[in-house]
Design a protein that fits this description.
It comes from Irpex rosettiformis. By secondary structure, the protein is α+β, with helices and mostly antiparallel strands. 18% of the residues lie in helices and 25% in strands.
């Protein structure tokens, strides 16, 4: 096939920076671009999607859809009916609601109580101000460095997932050395490691005072809680659960190594298929195609990552990575980038999700309107112990990372007994977070 010189020049001047080295990268880059094209086509035209699948059938590998056992494919929500994500009993943060800043379009509300840093980093990795492509996503709020904990409420209510933890306020957490900013400038959130406790262990759950509808949430973590009995999560949630939705970005239990992202909604939100290729995702659906919490025993629609370094000990040994959740008119997507594969545009605070390739998870707007089923979210970190999920699969195995059950690995028959009697086993049950950044397009 011959191409005229003007056409070649046009191609090279219009190609995106992220794909500028396409010919040097070879088939791997071409496969990634083919996946992008396939995902876009799948959203817009079933006929075109079929054509692309036929054309690129050697490049687009479909994920296996093996049957999932009930015990090993449970999807749990980290909230519960009647509990708002903004519920807190924090005696260290100013009251919310004195003055707010609201931005139209995809909405963004920031409380005047507790000011976050709100400034973009000047570093732009390999990109420069003159060469970096313009991003429609503008930084609205940044939590990092010494001011990381400013602008968060410390939740002190009972754990809605029935874990054996006591969530503590900010002053108590500081005094107990369960929160800190380490020498690398990262925020650390730990679980109590007292050798033995009678009932619960102290832990930390924090919620942004800021709320938003639509946006791009990016979280860089160096370390996350891991080990038998742990159940950490990073997620967003709206008021009057589940009517305004929940988006679990990072979640798993015990020794799992593959992250699970899940949405929980009011009735009416569904997926059109359980096929990874049809959905345009790299992950595998582990829940059903009905996402309503009330209709699925609170399970919702979950997707398990194919990457064995996306959660737990394997994530930590790789020095972590970056998670991004995109919530726009197309739907809700979750991406994961290991430490050695973080896009330059993220480092430059000029994110370009259209260049990131296939998402780990995607819930399209076609059958789940993202601005009907999700509204007024805050971002949340928590670590609970045992609870409905971690305790419920204590004797189960077969999930990546959990080739042997926790009951077998610990020699203890119940999660609760193990947690109460083995505080030293929770030295790895901590978050170490470099930043959380929230972007919006207006």
């Amino acid at each position: 096939m011959r191409l005229h010189l003007p056409l070649l020049l046009c191609l090279f001047t219009t190609i995106s920076p992220a794909d500028a080295n396409i010919f040097a990268r070879g088939t791997e880059s071409f496969a990634r671009i083919a996946s992008k094209a396939h995902r876009h086509a799948a959203r817009r035209s079933a006929g075109l999607a079929r054509d692309l699948r036929l054309s690129f059938q050697g490049l687009l590998a479909e994920q296996p859809q093996g049957a999932q056992s009930v015990a090993n494919s449970r999807v749990y929500c980290v909230n519960s009916p009647g509990l708002s994500s903004n519920t807190n009993n924090n005696d260290t943060s100013p009251a919310i609601g004195n003055a707010t800043t609201v931005i139209s379009g995809p909405s963004f509300t920031s409380s005047s109580g507790g000011k976050a840093s709100g400034t973009a980093s000047s570093g732009r990795a390999s990109a420069t101000a003159s060469s970096a492509p313009s991003s429609p996503w503008k930084l609205k709020q940044s939590y990092q460095g010494n001011s990381f904990f400013n602008g968060w409420d410390f939740f002190t209510g009972a754990d809605p997932t029935n874990g054996i933890v006591t969530y503590i306020d900010q002053n108590t957490a500081k005094q107990a050395n369960l929160i800190s900013i380490n020498s690398d400038g990262n925020a650390v959130m730990k679980v109590e490691t007292t050798p033995q406790v009678q009932n619960t262990r102290q832990s930390v759950r924090i919620t942004t005072q800021l709320t938003f509808t639509g946006g791009l949430v990016i979280m860089d973590s160096v370390h996350m809680p891991t080990g038998c009995g742990t159940w950490p999560a990073f997620w967003t949630n709206g008021p009057n659960w589940p009517n305004n939705g929940e988006i679990d970005i990072v979640e798993g239990v015990n020794d799992y190594t593959n992250n699970q992202a899940t949405i929980h909604t009011a009735p009416g939100c569904t997926l059109s298929s359980s096929s990874s290729s049809a959905l345009g995702i790299s992950g595998t659906l582990v829940g059903g195609t009905v996402c309503a919490a009330a209709l699925t025993g609170n399970q919702g629609c979950g997707v398990r990552s194919p990457q064995t370094n996306s959660f737990g000990a394997s994530f930590n040994s790789n020095n972590g990575g970056v998670y991004a959740m995109q919530w726009d008119n197309d739907g809700v997507s979750v991406f994961f980038f290991p430490r050695n594969n973080i896009p330059d545009d993220i480092t430059a605070n000029a994110p370009l999700p259209q260049n990131w390739g296939t998402p780990m998870a995607f819930w399209p707007s076609a059958n789940c309107d993202p601005f009907k089923f999700f509204n007024g979210h805050s971002a949340i970190f928590d670590t609970t112990l045992c609870g409905d999920w971690a305790s419920g699969v204590w004797t189960s195995s077969g999930i990546p990372g959990q080739e042997q059950s926790c009951a077998q690995r610990t020699g203890v028959s119940t999660c609760e007994q193990f947690v109460r009697q083995n505080g030293g086993s929770f030295s790895e049950a901590y978050w170490e977070v470099s930043y959380v950044k929230i972007f919006q397009t207006s």
